[in-house]
Amino acid sequence: MSLTRRKLLRLAGGAAVALPVASVLSGCQDEGSTGALRKSDAKVPTLFKVPLPVPPVLKPSRSEGGVDYYDIVQKPAQVEILPGLKTEIWGYNGLFPGPTLATRSERKIVVRHTNQLEVPVAVHLHGAKTPAEHDGFPTDLILPDGGWSGHTMHGGNTSQGSRAYEYPLAQPAATLWYHDHRMDFTGPQVYKGLAGFHLVHDEEEDNLPLPKGDRDIPLMICDRSFTESGAFAYPSIDPSLTGEHGVTQEYMKGVLGDVILVNGAPWPVLEVDAARYRFRLLNASNARRYQLSLDPGPQSGPAFVQVGSDSGLLGRPIGHDEIRMSEAERFDVVVDFSQFPVGTKVSMLNTLGDGDAGKVMQFHVVRRAADDSTVPSRLVDFEPLSRSAATVTRKFHFNQRSDEGWDINGAMYDPEEDQADPELGATEIWRFDGDADHPIHLHLAHFQVLSRNGNEPGRWDAGWKDTVDMQSGKEIEVIARFTGYKGRYVFHCHNLEHEDMGMMANFSVR
Ligand code: C2O
Ligand code: CU
Ligand code: CU
Prior knowledge:
Shape: globular
Strand order of the largest sheet: 16-15-13-18-23-20-21
Number of helices: 4
Distance between the termini: 24 Å
Low-confidence stretches: 1-29
Bound molecules: CU-O-CU linkage, copper (II) ion
Strand content: 35-45%
Helix content: under 10%
CATH superfamily of the largest domain: Cupredoxins -  blue copper proteins
């Protein structure tokens, strides 16, 4: 192939697409988020009415030779998200969020995905150390079971109808998530519902006295907008997702919705005991950032005690009154509802959001209850990486290229080019900067934040991470370990509109 598809598209796009000059929507930008608000046409529901759903835990279809086999069918489903209206979602097993996988560290699993949608998909387990051929590389597509007449990706490892992904899960307990990663179409396909939790457990975690069972709840937070009839209102150039990719010009910075969903329900309510709960917070939004707080706050102590970050448990817990989360980040936190009188309604707010987007969900403290959980002052052995451990330093500039899209070091995503070639097992310092805020995610490698704008890491930067929020004009340095597997992986901005419109690159571990 002489020209990559990306280059061809860019050429074609320049000639053929005559869009009206973008209306400047920066006034609609919620503070802290890069994007434009698509207001819902449907009536937005009353806040704090529906109960919080908790996604079901998927059982293996079979276990054999120490390996658990799972089966997932990706298909459309009609669900009621707004009262009285039906929304078509695309879901793993027809669910949004998808079923939760709960697995054990070091126990291999195989997940067979069957694609009953009308478009290609790719599945990525975000935060996992996965061999490259199973990582959901953006051109490794599963074509629709029912046939596909659109283009495929050159060089991609394409499967017809279904394929099995193998996950060794050689990594400690962590809150991971799986989501679609189809090249150029991740934004709309995740928006339609292709996202779910994957919780890796291990013995170290089992032995900690943290809240367990019904008091360990994953919370997937995302924003959506709805058409009058209740459909998701994602502003794709081609809503069939079979032709031209990307969103209409005014949403190039990101698509913001005005309905906040937690586990797929709008501004839900959770009835809680006056006891400690562990919440695995995930920001699964395409482009919205959140700064979470509790209202009222607890009588004493911090609102949230953080026990884990993206890639596992912390060495020691950290108290926060507010948690700022960029797209794809996870915060594993404990909230102590015994610090509220029974009868209290505690709202979780998003202090970055305007209007109803400033509210997320509500907890109703309904009863006293026994609680033998605690948050110990030491959690797991944590090895801080020192600067001197790094053998290579690389620099990446995240840049907007006028209205064409987004790039890294001057290049829009090309699946056939590498921008880095770390050695297997190497420790490297990667420096990121840019002229807008970007949540930056590395596949395979976990990292620690070394500095922000020449200063100490921020208060939300602790622990092993796979995604970090870089702020405009302020360089961030991370120290990453490229352990695991050789092969080609991506790193990218996790604002999904930026990702789809070029802000992604490859590195090959050699
Ligand atoms: Cu969560 Cu490359 O993605
Ligand atoms: Cu990832
Ligand atoms: Cu970005």
